[in-house]
Amino acid sequence: MGYSSILKLINQGDFSEAKKRMNEYIDGNEVNEEDLKLLIDYYNATNSLFAGRILYRIQCSMGKYFDAYETFVSLLSKTMRKELSLADCVELADLPTVERMTEDIIEKLEDDLDIPQSLIVSQIYDILEPKLYAAKQEKDYELIARMANNIWFEELKSSHYLYETAKSCIKVKDPLAEKVLQKM
């Protein structure tokens, strides 16, 4: 079974067989850098959500957590499906990579990211925030506060981590702390 035969199945719309073969391929650790590049090129050329989900899984399995995060954000902006979770890669990523993801999402939010804010909170903020908060470092509290300040407050209120957000804001003397505390 060649990797290109899986892409051919995707092109033909035989997602069931492609998924089966892809799972075997990933589970057998047969994916190499050349295959990954081929899939990235295919995903970029076709914007196939199916190929994007496979790409995300492969990037996670290869330890390419920031790349997986970027693929996740790309998929989230194209669909509201919740078939993937950023937690899959954040749990395994080291703290500097999670900090880099957070810096990136802050930049994207400042540039008016085209993803509904409710999804930003549930699919990104609530995944990144606990790992940053657990680090108990001032720079991570600052990242939490900056990220929270770039999310519409009406949507931020739905976060499962309001207490931690408030505490982080207090630690870095961010005025958002008072507003969050009033909503708890």
What is the topology?
Blueprint: H1 3-12, H2 15-27, H3 33-46, H4 49-61, H5 65-78, H6 87-90, H7 95-110, H8 117-135, H9 138-149, H10 153-156, H11 162-171, H12 176-183
Helix pairs in contact: 1-2, 2-4, 3-4, 4-5, 5-7, 7-8, 7-9, 8-9, 9-11, 11-12
Task: Describe the 3D structure.
- By secondary structure, the protein is an all-alpha fold.
- It is built from twelve helices and no strands.
- The chain has helices spanning 3-12, 15-27, 33-46, 49-61, 65-78, 87-90, 95-110, 117-135, 138-149, 153-156, 162-171, 176-183.
- Helix 3 runs antiparallel to helix 4.
- The longest helix has 19 residues, at 117-135.
What would the keywords be for this entry?
mainly alpha; 184 residues; 0% strand; 74% helix
Shape designation: elongated
Structural class: mainly alpha
Give the distance, in angstroms, between the N- and C-terminal Cα atoms: 55 Å
Radius of gyration: 18 Å
Q: Got a strand count?
A: 0
Instruction: Outline the biggest β-sheet.
Output: none
Query: Could you spell the SSE succession in H and E letters?
Result: HHHHHHHHHHHH
Residues in helix, %: over 70%
What integer is the average pLDDT? 86
Low-confidence stretches: none
The share of residues in extended strands comes to: under 5%
Number of helices: 12
Question: Short summary of the structure?
Answer:
This protein is mainly alpha-helical and 184 residues long.
